Write the structure tokens for this entry.
Amino acid sequence: MIKTIINAWKVAEIRKKLLFTAFIILVFRIGSVIPVPFLNIVDEISVGKGNTILTYLSLMTGSAFTYGTIFAMSITPYINSSIIMQLLAVAIPALERLQKEGEEGRKKIASITRFVTVGLGILQSLAYYFYLRANNYLMTAADGSAFTGFDAVFQAVVIVLVLTAGTAVIMWLGEQITISGIGNGISIILFAGIVSRFPTLIKQLFQYLDTGRLVYRILVPVVCVVFLLMIAYIVFMDNSERRLPISYAKRVVGRKMMGGQSTHMPIKVNMSGVLPVIFASSILSLPGTVQMFLSASKYEGTFWEKFFKAFQGDSWWYALMYFLLIIFFAYFYSTIQYNPIEMANNLRKNNGAIPGIRPGKPTSDYILRVLSRLTLIGALMLSVIALFPIVYSLVCDMAIKPLTEGGNDGGMTISLGGTSLIIMCGVALETVRQLESQMMMRHYKGFLD
């Protein structure tokens, strides 16, 4: 990877794209520290304990959410909008036709996605404003009382509009990277937000070492090694694929014999990417989010106390539900993304066939069986990364907590989850692939040389 970046830097055109991408990332990080007007945040916004939507947003925004900055919503509304459009394209025939119209159809879908992003940004900004108001994070009048009447409405409008405008600006910055920079702009911005948490993670590890306890001196190097092993595992998982052999029949076109070649159809093992983890964590975070707005005395000692406890990140029930939901959404996404019947029909139209499998329904059934098995393998591999921080915390709670003084700190916690690692490694690998392809185009010697 480092060699690829060094070689790309030597090409003037690619170097300009790299510098442009770095400049956009710098603008994004500057916006992530500019506070929204009318907010009174001394340290950080409390996002509660355990697994909630607020902790998820804080993770995806590089902590911009917890500081109430103009980019607090980050790129999450656009991601949600893109996922919604993908799902609607399966259910609505008009959107499905647009997808098949080529470049013009994709432009129309991109335009609709932008409008949906702004709408989701407004809704998310409104929810964020009400949360800030409920927790007394808004500026008050000189006598310490909350604004009323026109002043309160003006304050709410300014906060919501600034947050929504921040979402629109980030979406525009991502598109500029895609057009004039290197890689997928939205992914690069998401990558930058996640990587910005690294200094905090390193500081956290040094704080554990400063305690002078032997258990932490052993665990910190172990965590670093495990972190590197997880990255290597994600790279292996991302590059793993099943290659279905394809043979094309010979045919006569004019006076020439065409076809007769053998190739393969690559199918990625982790075909759904990180989406099953995002869907699963979003659903499991809903009970914890509802719990934040309830008084503990109302459900203490009732069934709801056990219910909310089961959805906390330090529960074995949570780990089990997380595992099952990842497998479910992996199958769900592969079902809407891949159509074995259409794949079999395309092979038959191009005079292609899988050796030993008859064209038509037998081919579609065979592809369906392969997809089903690969989806299960990919979901299990994905679960290992997603569940590792949870299982690690549970093991630390049982094994390390008794070794700490008074048993109050509960051992070490990993603030960088499996979802972040998968996104980070996936974006890095895809960006390097694009660099390699662009260098190959510029160094290719054709028949004109």
In short: The CA atoms of residues 12 and 221 lie 41 Å apart. The first helix runs from residue 2 to 9. The two ends are 29 Å apart (CA to CA). The mean pLDDT is 79.
